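fold-stage: in
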Amino acid sequence: MLPELWGRLEEAGSDIEIADVIRFHHPDFNADRLETYPTIEQLLSEMKANAELFYSTRPAAGNFSSEQLEDRRANLLQEMAIWFHDLKKAALKPKPKWLRRLVTAMREEEASIISFNWDLVLDEMLFGSSLDKGSYGLDRRRKGPRLIKPHGSLNWYRRSAAGPIKSEKKFSLGGSGDAEVFGFRPLRAVQSSKGRQYMPLIVPPVYAKQFEGPLFQKLWQETVRALSTASEVRFLGFSLAEADFHARFVLRCGFYNQEHGALRSDGHRDTATGRAKVVVVDRSSTPLPRIRGAVGWECEFHQKDISDWVAEGGLEANRIYGASSDTERMLT
């Protein structure tokens, strides 16, 4: 991801500052040599560790201060957010047939979709102008598909950023006072036409992720709840990185509950719904053993692009009929 992002950093004039940080951790870094780039997750994790231990490892600031380091990290995340928003606009222009078919299936099945991405492609295609807190699994009374985003979203903002936005262009996702979080509707860029920048509520891709506030607690609870009774789970292009311990743990909770019953507030468990059918679609076989380990049983695997799988009838072939009304279809 970082090599693809580098051109944007150059245009923004922040490439030199970011390169200085990279070279501190990776002395052989050369922006012209692809093999010298760290992963974005590795770099952000290193910057986080640097900031946390900054004053414990030196008697003086040195070449840059802790505040400057945090500014560089924030600028990198801001450019990532802008880039992802631009990718959304590009993806929605043609609206390829396979993606339209996938979205139609999600609607028809009233699927629970768990997305660990920040982008807004599914938000736009599934809900459009009807987007509200129920769209994100935060209102159980809402019928239809739900898009649960445990790592945040490019259109979610804390009150400090959302305050100047007119009430008809935002909706509350939860919280109160300074802790209230809003969703923007219609979806908007992270930089306004007047140059104002909005830092969305997203969880940076670092090894030790932090999930602050009741909103993320609610999202993880809904993730486990949906997985616990799913009749079918489809992992579509989901790598389940080795270092993503939070996602792995939550997946294990959900699949464990399928066999043992979801845990209730009184400490007892509901009747187990049984093992879901699990389908994994990915162009690489690398994620399969990781997903198989989180699931706990064998998975049906299709080594191909999602677009090919959909075009070749994968959605229809894996459709389950006659599922009871209290089971859910899950697409991740």
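fold-stage: in (second)
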Amino acid sequence: MSDSKFSKTAMNFNHVFDPKKQAAILFDKNFPITDQRSLVDRQINIPVITEHDLLVEIQAVSVNPVDTKLRQTGLAAGNRILGYDACGIVKKIGRDVTRFRTGDRVYYAGTTQRPGSNENFQAIDERLVGRAPQKFTAAQTAAMPLTSLTAYEILVDKLGLTFQNHAAEGKKMLVINGAGGVGSILLQMAAYLGIQLSVTAHSQQSIDWLKQYPIDKIYDYENLDENLAGEKFDYIVFLYDPSAYWQTAVKHIKAYGQLVSIVGTETPLNLGPLKNIGAGFKWEYMFAKSDFDHNILSQGQALDRIAILFDAGILKSTLNVVFDQINASNLRKAYALIESGRTQGKLVLNGPFQGAAQ
């Protein structure tokens, strides 16, 4: 099946189900995360897979800012099942699947165009899926897909770097707001490429978390321009609203440097100062590939490649907090932490699914 048919196939089969029931957690945008009605345990039908799908029994899921944004805006209301990080076991394969067999342990972020991983059994296109690291637990694995793909696409797709050891030796990168999920794996990947790393943080918890990674300098983001003094960087990556640090970034980017943001902004960014120094700016959104049927196999292949580095001990899981049992109560607690904006690393709910009795 061609990439161009991906969204159409997802649309046709989103609501086609087997009669067998499964546990799932559904969301409602009309309530704050502190309200029990914001996320509810339910019994729903198990999805029927298409010819290129895997049916995966979920072992663990992770939470990300995109979950809370989609819940709050209702943009995923057609599915009502969030969840964009998973580790699980392949229980069934579509007739045209070539990359996996039943019994394989896999991990993936998936797509916002179909129901997410907050269900006991999920149907997922094989091209979005990677082989799970052999040496990680389910929780360690579930923490990694979305952030790993985001970091990989920043380095490879946006900055044009070769994903090999020492491939960017001597280059300098500033990561703004680097203690979260994406920052924690981006710093590891960039160090693997040989990049000299600087990162911003403020709280002692974030500074302590970052000390485990190969960072040259940690800057307090308050008075960042002054703290950076005369430093210049080949790459600046925004993991926070870029408008808050835009003027500082423009002053500290090298000629022909590159700036990348994974966070949107409602404030216009003045790109004019970049013109005469040949610098560029790009957006990174990991779901754009599956949203627009663009080279989605590259994500499954990237996860395969990243898993090798996990098993080699070159990259480490960024798992920080684990909730035992996947249910609406624990998911509300995890989402509340994400919505606070004060987390380090990743939060994971470890299976089994519990609580979906209705």
